[in-house]
From TrEMBL:
This is GntR family transcriptional regulator. Residues 8-76 form the HTH gntR-type domain. It holds the Pfam family GntR. It comes from the Bacteria. The keyword Kinase does not apply. The lineage of its organism: Bacteria, Pseudomonadati, Pseudomonadota, Betaproteobacteria, Burkholderiales. It comes from Roseateles amylovorans. Keywords: DNA-binding, Transcription, Transcription regulation.
């Protein structure tokens, strides 16, 4: 079971999680998303909340609704998402992270990019 927080509406948290999965290529462009029912069961949330999350991804140009067939990942969705995530990181997260590294006295030589 997934644990939700109070920082954003649940539908937005789900949309963010599904977008992260799309960024990882799951599902691939052109492939169907799991059904509303399947997602509601997986995340133990109301199907209306799932529908709202999927609609947010449609509004963001990542998914398309095919009448009677469900939601599908749009072509180019991963690249659009990657560009958007990179821009957000560089504008919002990187300046804070860089400032924290400076406060801690850490430099690029102290960071190991290979360990995960």
């Amino acid at each position: 079971m997934h644990s939700w927080n109070d920082h954003a509406p649940i539908y937005q948290q789900l949309a963010d999680q599904l977008a992260a999965q799309l960024l990882d290529g799951d599902p691939h462009e052109g492939e169907a998303m799991p059904s509303v029912r399947a997602l509601a069961s997986r995340y133990v949330i109301n199907p209306l909340t799932v529908s709202r999350a999927l609609q947010a991804l449609v509004d963001g140009g990542l998914l398309e609704s095919r009448r009677g067939m469900g939601m599908y990942v749009r072509g180019g969705a991963r690249e659009r998402l990657l560009r958007s995530e990179r821009d957000q990181f560089l504008q919002d997260e990187w300046p804070r992270l860089r400032a924290k590294l400076r406060r801690l006295g850490l430099s690029a030589n102290d960071l190991n990019w290979e360990d995960a």
